[in-house]
Automatic annotation (TrEMBL):
Keyword Chaperone tagged: no
Protein name: Fungal lipase-type domain-containing protein
GO biological process: lipid metabolic process
InterPro entries reported for this sequence: Fungal_lipase-type, Sec_MonoDiacylglyc_Lipase
UniProt source species: Populus tomentosa
Entry-linked Pfam families: Lipase_3 (PF01764)
Signal peptide: 1-30
Domain Fungal lipase-type: 112-254
Keywords: Hydrolase, Signal
Keyword Hydrolase: yes
An MF annotation (GO) of this entry: hydrolase activity
Amino acid sequence: MVIAGPPEYMGKRRLFILAIFVCLFAFSCGRELMAEHKHADNHLTAYNHSLATILVEYASAVYMSDLTELFTWTCSRCSGLTAGFDIIELLVDVEHCLQSFVGVAKDLNAIVIAFRGTQEHRSKLVSIQNWIEDLYWKQLDINYPGMPDAMVHHGFYSAYHNTTIRPGILNAVERAKQYYGDLNIIVTGHSMGGAMAAFCGLDLVVNTEAKNVQVMTFGQPRVGNAAFASYYSQLVPNTIRVTNDHDIVPHLPPYYRYFPQKTYHHFPREVWLHNIGVGSLVYEVEKVCDGSGEDPDCCRSVAGNSIADHLVYFGVELMCETWRSCGIVMDSLAKEYGKMDVKGNIVFSRDSILRMKTETNTGGDRM
């Protein structure tokens, strides 16, 4: 038998229980909100759409193979939002099929460093597919110096650290500061160029103690494991990885969620471009993802099965104009004003560019 007690007692008892429930609910929500705020990744950079549309043009321009047009910034992709860019140094590592430039964007008040991806072009999809298939089997195979348990992709690491690209970049950054002062540094690139951009940004922070380094990449593959991603996000928090719809490359090398410490892992923050809607009511969304680097609601929520989505971002083509199998176009001016080493690698510096422009405009004799 249950003794109910007086009605007024039962009413007070219900109010008391309700008050306890409300307090517990409020406390629970408060704890959740605090945890969510802590996970709001305030240390990570905010996404800037306008900056992304500018940097994607730099990431496109670095694919140009006509070196004279590129180092004089007169190429077909060297206008629009990047007009007036002052090239400090153009680097071409012919031996490893790599290309990069360093210059100053006065409208951004920043040094811009751009890296070319692989020699991608629609007419040679087989070569892209071969590269992509190779990424499926890539294992973490090198320890990143000074970072316990951090492992990275040997090929991407070596492309930046073990070629003529790195010393040329560091030298050009110092020269840019001599000309323009201590500017911010923005590093960008597409595909493999994005992977190199990430290593470059980290290198500038760790080894040159550069301040105000920002990295924004497009269609970048994974480059290291979770330990590396954690170190990277702490050291270069001002980083954005833009991914596009079903682009296959950001899904590679594969991420195995059941082996979080042993698998490749993206660093944050991702911004995922994708279309929503049906029929004619379709529009593009730019989703700013969480701070995990592997947000299941962003590009990981779809199948990464599109090469076409890899080659165009914001309507800008990120590929070579034509297929030349790592070829470059050099006219007599490029040969005359560039510095070439014994392996055929080429550097075009600001001084030689200015000298060429002066002599060309005055019609004087070229040395």
